[in-house]
Amino acid sequence: MNTCEKKSFFYHVKELRKRVVRSIISIIICTLYCFNKKQILFENILFYPAKYNFISYKFFSKIGLFFNKKINILPNNICIQNIQLFGQFNIYIFLSLIGGIILSFPFICYEFWKFIKPGLSKKERKNIKKFFFIFLSLFIIGLLFGYFILSPFAIQFADNFFISELPQNIFDLNDYVSIIIESTLLMGIVFLFPIIPFFLKKMNIIKSCFLKQYRKHAFLILFIIASAITTGDIITTIIVFIPFYLLFEISLLIIN
Predict the structure, then answer these.
(1) Predicted confidence band of residue 241 (pLDDT cuts 50, 70, 90)
(2) CB 173 within 8 A of CB 80
(3) 184 with 146: CB under 8 angstroms?
(4) Which residues of 175-203 are buried (b: 16+ CB within 10 A; e: fewer)?
(5) Which 3 state secondary structure label does DSSP give 221?
(6) What is the helix (H) or strand (E) element at residue 161, kind and residue range?
């Protein structure tokens, strides 16, 4: 390695270090901000799906009335208990950190972009911007679907399911937090599905005719999946099935 290469290497290391430090500082600042917004973070976001007046329950109820069919929603707020000594404090710290990472994510992406941008051609910059926009849009839509659709279905099913009249459904705090986070993130990842066929086509592994050939099979499989993750009610199943099938059609459009 000659002197110029050494200087170039250490310059990039120094530049990377600067970007990483800035990103960490932004996470710390945003985390401290979330510490100070406990009402919004917990009452208006985390525990909102546990309340009977959650916007999704009202939406499901109106759809049921439109079809002259009653959809069971939460009659009351669900009961959540904490059985660990520092359970609530640990959740407070954990979710504040998660909130800090989410709020600082745009700035982190900006710092990452500023680091890699000089080494990219004009065409590469354009393609990366386009890909990132599609990736982020699908992921955010998936997160919203998981939070407003899948999580309420999971909570409603768990609250209404009984094996006997004796056991009472009282949810553990950690279990509740897990199901909200996992349902939301799961849908965020699932909604990235259209990106997979795009890369498979680029590698000449599949063609659009393959997906078109098995469209009917995909329709049936997606309907079964939608039915499995809901209460089995036809209306709620359709509500979940529609975006799933739209993702499949979007995949066809992308690889075409």
Answers:
(1) confident
(2) yes
(3) yes
(4) ebbebbbebbebbbebbbebbebeebbee
(5) helix
(6) none
Return the closest-CA partner of residue 240 out of 38, 60, 110, 11. Answer: 60
Tell me the two tokens of residue 202: 């680029």
The single residue listed with the structure tokens 């990377």 is: 16
> Quick one: tokens of 52?
């009977």
- Compute the average pLDDT of residues 125-129: 88
Given the structure tokens 């063609």, which residue do they identify?
207
Tell the burial category of 240 from Cβ atoms under 10 Å away from its Cβ (0-12, 13-18, 19+): buried
Q: Which one, of 96, 129, 98, 102, lies nearest residue 113 by Cα?
A: 129
Mean pLDDT lowest for which of 91-95, 143-147, 191-195?
191-195
Write out the two tokens for 117: 């941008």
In 3D, which of 206, 226, 146, 214 has the Cα closest to residue 180?
146
How far apart, in whole angstroms, are the C-alpha atoms of residue 207 and residue 25? 45
Cα 28 to Cα 103: distance, rounded to the nearest angstrom: 11
Q: 160 or 70, which is more confident?
A: 160
Phi and psi torsions of 234, nearest 5°: -65, -40
Estimate to the nearest angstrom the gap between the alpha carbon of 82 and the chain centroid: 25
Residue 55 contacts residue 148 (beta carbons within 8 Å): yes
The domain locations on the chain are 3-192, 193-256
Contact 159, 220 (CB under 8 A): no
Residue 56 in contact with residue 74, Cβ under 8 Å? no
